[in-house]
Amino acid sequence: MQVVGISSLKGGVGKTSVTLGLASAALSAGTPTLVVDLDPHADASTGLGVALTHPQQEIGRQLKAGRRGDLEANVQPSPWASRSERDAAVLDVAVGGSYGTVYDRPDLRPRDLRRLKQLLDKTSKYDLVLIDCPPSLNGLTRQAWTASHQAVLVAEPSLFSVAGTERTMRAIDMFKNEFTTPLNSTRVVANRFRESSTEQRFRLSEMRRMFSSHLMNPVLPEQPDWQQIQGAAYAVHQWPGEAAKQTAQHFDQLLASLLGTQQKRPRTRGVPAASTTA
To answer: What is the pLDDT of residues 177-186, one digit of tens each?
Structure first.
């Protein structure tokens, strides 16, 4: 089971959108996947079309349960899976919520940092776990790093986002020196790139110099349909149109790079008859 923590020090850079895009690619490839929504805003849960049906399902309450928790028994299946062409497609969600803020502190003890890892160590249903972290370096993000094999940092080609990503990479190095973690790789995804912007072209060149081999390919261009896709709670692989198709292919390549495999995307099945905007 490969565990990937998706992080950003700066909010508003599309971290959750990248999480959802990778989840869509995994579903399309037939990879049994769990999305852990550690962000108390629970945007990933909303985008995946799930909501709490019982308070105990919230990931924060499962973290509190610790060794007594049963993550597999308290996840929600995403309706994305029911629309998939794959037989017995698996895409589950550990639903986010405000209770998790109990652990979003900078001073968590080492035993508390291991709570998420303990929950994931008891699961055997999934080949991939994607953790959508809050836009901070507090306890929840550190719990994700303690459980993850790879960290993916999402950044826009902009001054503050690039600077924040550099600080986050330094924070990860310090964290790995201080705590035991399976984290062995840190990658950077450049998101919402606009080729027409001189500033963004400059910042992307800067990212290539600063992050070198850590910067993943391809760069994700700005996707004008994202709000509509997410507002309808659909996977990008299941959305009509050439722009969505190209974006889906980009996420296929990113996922293949993360997993070290070659992904092939099948022909999509149905598309929504109607949608709403976010």
So the answer is: 998 899 999 9
